[in-house]
Amino acid sequence: MKANILFSTVLMLAISVSVNAQLKVKTNGNVKIGSQSPWPSGGKLEITGINETLEARIFPASANTARLWTINSRYAFAFGIDNNGYGHIYKNIHSPYAIMTFKSNGYFGIGRTPYYKLDVNGSIRVNSTIYSSDRRLKANVTPISNQTSNLFRLNSVSYNLNDAIDKSEKAAQTETMDSTKVISEPLKHDNRIHYGFIAQEVREIYPELVYEDDEGMLGIDYVSFIPLLIEELKQQNKTIEKLSQEVEILKTTSINSFQTDKNNTLGELHQNFPNPFNETTTIKFKLSNSIRSATLYLYDLQGNQVKSYLISQSGEALITIKGSELQPGMYLYSLIADGKLIDTKTMILTD
């Protein structure tokens, strides 16, 4: 009787294991955990399930580093977490070091610990870069034309990067099956010449374009200089257009209607002194004794006559002009004698 009971118990256990087993190993070494899908056609390990969350855990039960390695006869890479809570992709099983790092806040670093959403130690190649710039994403939109003058205070420099590089650039990859065999050399440091600004200097002029990470390292938002440069170019273009118009006006100004005294037989006109000026300036001239009438005319750059000074004497003389009688700007003054232009010069009145 006892034998029958024992036999029945063993039989029931066998049937239970056969029906409910969640871990199965085939004779070829393939392993399956779960029973919701057929055996994998290529993978050696399959974890299956339906309408449930599937997890595979490596749990050191402490804040130690944990890694899951994938290895072939030469190379080894791992996914893991360190005792600081940072996730990594590791390289080199004999001397592991992180080549990619990500934090719990979603920051991802390549070649360095990230302090930004994407933090890369090295060059990035892309076909295009798109920046979010929709008006609906922006508030307090104001023109920046009054902020471009500080561009001329920036110092452009050329430089080489320092020799201090990350561990990932110092270590070589060794063959998985032979820890003494090097199969890839350390990355070479970038020795080319670069051009840019010094972040500490930019922060004194445009502090909003400089960022500082948790280690105190500064970075510059170079892209934001584009609208500043465009505004400055627009201002310069306005100045160029204005000067071009003034040149055309000068070409057709009324003073050109006078005949020119090409041989200076009628007199001479000297440059005013001081020039520029803000209070008074003196214009010296000399007229021939044969002159019957002469006048000194003062024009603005639009060709409008601003003042005129009748001259009643020949020989050397001078005229004093008061800055308080004029608006700050550039002026032309011409000496005309007996209907002929002796000379024209420029004078500048400052604020």
Q: Would you kindly provide a written description of the structure presented here, covering whatever features stand out?
A:
There is one protein chain. This protein is an alpha+beta fold and 351 residues long. Among the domains are: 2-47, no CATH class; 255-349, Macroglobulin (MG2) domain (Immunoglobulin-like), CATH 2.60.40. The protein contains four helices and 23 strands. It has helices spanning 2-20, 167-170, 199-205, 225-251; strands at 23-25, 31-33, 45-47, 66-71, 76-81, 87-91, 97-102, 108-110, 118-120, 157-159, 173-175, 178-184, 194-196, 210-212, 218-220, 259-260, 267-269, 280-287, 294-300, 305-311, 315-322, 329-337, 340-349. It has a six-stranded mixed sheet, with no helix packed on it. The longest helix has 27 residues, at 225-251. The N and C termini lie far apart (123 Å).
Straight-line distance between termini: 123 Å
| Biggest sheet details | 6 strands, mixed
Secondary-structure content class: alpha+beta
The total strand number stands at 23
Task: List segments where confidence is low: pLDDT < 50 over at least 5 consecutive residues.
Answer: 9-19
CATH level-two architecture of the domain at 255-349: Sandwich
Order of helices and strands: HEEEEEEEEEEHEEEHEEHEEEEEEEE
Beta-strand portion reads 25-35%
How are the strands ordered across the major sheet? 4-5-6-7-8-9
Q: Give helix % range.
A: 10-25%
CATH-level-4 superfamily name of the domain at 255-349: Macroglobulin (MG2) domain
**Number of distinct helices:** 4
What shape does the CA trace take? Answer: rod-shaped
Supply Rg.
42 Å
Q: Under CATH, the topology of the domain at 255-349 is which?
A: Immunoglobulin-like
